[in-house]
Design goal:
Shape: globular
Radius of gyration: 16 Å
Largest sheet: 5 strands, mixed
Order of helices and strands: HEEEEEEEEEEEHEEE
Strand content: 25-35%
């Protein structure tokens, strides 16, 4: 049932994307005209974006700007300058649920019709960006964060990533 819901959401995103190339999740409109994906960020928001959990490095066409939660060393990582950069200390991946379903395809591409990148969700746009979910002091306000959760901390004005044990912050 969960896979059917995920597929339905993905199809709806693709259809919506083909008309507007901008998507708001949890709200009626996006902030700014240079946004391809935007999340509900009202006062008291405690929801973030959860990165794909992978065992080792993903295969396929890796592109700079790819984010993952690597369960082999329990770290949030970003592919930058053709190398993986850790964005967190070693955390804890013991609560991660393994996805044993047999998905096929390249995932959902937003912002353009095609992409050379291979991912679950590919934001491909030459002039638009994603606005991360905004959470004030996530280490205090997110009661049950999941490994690989990322958000923008509106208090410290930093990127916050949860490694399964603690929050890590990047300016």
């Amino acid at each position: 049932m969960k896979n059917i819901r995920n597929i339905s959401i993905a199809v709806a995103l693709v259809i919506f994307n083909s008309f507007f190339a901008q998507v708001a999740i949890g709200k009626q409109s996006i902030d700014g005209r240079s946004t391809v994906l935007d999340f509900e960020n009202g006062a008291g928001n405690t929801k973030g974006l959860i990165l794909p959990a992978t065992s080792g490095f993903p295969t396929g066409s890796l592109v700079n700007g790819t984010f993952i939660f690597d369960v082999t060393d329990s770290k949030v990582k970003m592919y930058e300058n053709d190398a993986w950069k850790s964005l967190s200390d070693t955390g804890n991946s013991s609560v991660i649920l393994v996805n044993n379903s047999a998905e096929t395809g390249k995932g959902v591409i937003m912002g353009e019709a095609t992409s050379a990148a291979d991912g679950v969700l590919v934001l491909e746009s030459p002039n638009k960006a994603m606005i991360l979910p905004k959470v004030a002091t996530p280490h205090l306000n997110v009661k049950n964060p999941y490994p690989g959760m990322i958000c923008y901390d509106t208090t410290s004005k930093t990127l916050a990533v949860f490694d399964g044990s603690v929050w890590n912050y990047w300016k």
